[in-house]
């Protein structure tokens, strides 16, 4: 499977990854090793370490010549390197630590909760369209209910920002100075991943504002209906 991505040489922080040979040579003193899922050493190819670890058998020269990166999506790799130049302990920056797994489960729970309340909102809107609960101020209720998915998406955004900004630290690397020393690709934020959440937050915000406005209109309608009935 080919992915059209801009590739730079090792050391160019605008690149999307590292040439394996260059990466191993420049980080040899830091115990750098790249292995496949079976523990076999990899000495050639191209690796991407953010937002996830991906491998291509192509070298940086092949990628520049062909203008395309052919990612092997079935290939699972381990990129092993020292936590810092002064720490003998090594870490696999492709692994998911217990904290990362907990954060991912939290994100999944937040998304599930948000979707559940969106369905509740959809059902409530359907009842309004069918003319049910005429004496109820449904928009007022919805303005509160819609605040729940808005809160969920906002918390999710904060967690994902935290995970992106601390991508390598969550995997054991000491700090960003070490990340730069190892010449790892580090854009800090995956904006494409954030786009969907930002759109969801924007939609929820617009809906809440709309329901607040509709609440006043609905209240006036209820008052008028009661006045008409009394007459």
TrEMBL record:
The chain crosses the membrane at residues 116-134, 141-163, 191-214. Keywords: Membrane, Transmembrane, Transmembrane helix. It comes from the Eukaryota. This is Integral membrane protein. The lineage of its organism: Eukaryota, Metazoa, Ecdysozoa, Nematoda, Chromadorea.
């Amino acid at each position: 499977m080919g992915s059209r991505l801009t590739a730079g040489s090792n050391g160019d922080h605008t690149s999307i990854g590292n040439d394996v040979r260059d990466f191993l040579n420049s980080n040899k003193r830091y115990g750098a090793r790249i292995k496949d899922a079976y523990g076999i050493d990899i000495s050639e190819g191209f690796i991407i370490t953010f937002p996830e670890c991906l491998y291509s058998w192509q070298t940086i020269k092949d990628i520049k010549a062909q203008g395309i990166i052919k990612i092997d999506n079935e290939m699972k790799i381990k990129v092993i390197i020292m936590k810092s130049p002064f720490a003998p302990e090594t870490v696999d920056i492709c692994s998911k630590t217990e904290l990362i797994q907990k954060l991912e489960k939290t994100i999944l729970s937040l998304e599930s909760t948000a979707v559940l309340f969106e369905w509740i909102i959809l059902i409530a809107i359907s009842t309004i369209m069918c003319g049910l609960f005429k004496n109820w101020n449904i928009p007022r209720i919805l303005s509160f209910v819609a605040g729940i998915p808005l809160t969920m998406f906002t918390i999710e955004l904060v967690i994902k920002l935290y995970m992106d900004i601390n991508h390598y630290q969550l995997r054991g690397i000491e700090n960003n100075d070490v990340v730069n020393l190892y010449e790892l690709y580090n854009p800090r934020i995956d904006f494409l991943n954030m786009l969907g959440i930002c759109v969801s937050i924007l939609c929820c915000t617009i809906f809440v504002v709309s329901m607040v406005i509709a609440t006043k209109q609905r209240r006036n309608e209820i008052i008028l209906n009661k006045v008409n009935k009394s007459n």
